[in-house]
Amino acid sequence: MKEITAHGDYIRCVLVHSTLPYVLSCSDDLSIKLWDWENNWKEINVYDDHEHYIMDMSLNPKDTNTFASASLDKTIKIWHISTSKANSHYSLIGH
Fold first, then answer.
1. Which residue segment(s) compose the domain that 38 sits in?
2. Nearest-5° angle of CA 45, CA 50, CA 55?
């Protein structure tokens, strides 16, 4: 069993990648983190473009290199696994 300190506040969602050895976690600390479980749970990337708690995430079933996150900042943001900023062309604002 492996235990890691992942976030500085409550973790709202944990998402296991469907094809890669990755786990995504999102938190009330306004960040999403990507972990590689085959590499001793190494932190691969941090996504930090939300302005309020991040409540949920979902992988894109047609492109598993992208995922969406939903936040109490009234946005849904689309991310690419390899970049740390959300794709501003595909952010949904006003929810």
1. 11-88
2. 90
Is residue 52 helix, strand or coil? coil
- In a domain, residue 6? The reply is no
- In this predicted structure, what is the pLDDT of residue 95? 66
Task: Please report whether residue 3 resides in a domain.
Answer: no
Total domain count, the chain? 1
Its pTM surpasses 0.85 = yes
Whether residue 70 is contained in a domain is answered as yes
**Helices and strands of the chain, counted as H and E runs:** 0, 8
Q: What is the mean pLDDT of each run of 10 residues along the chain (95 residues)?
A: 88 96 97 96 94 96 95 94 81 76
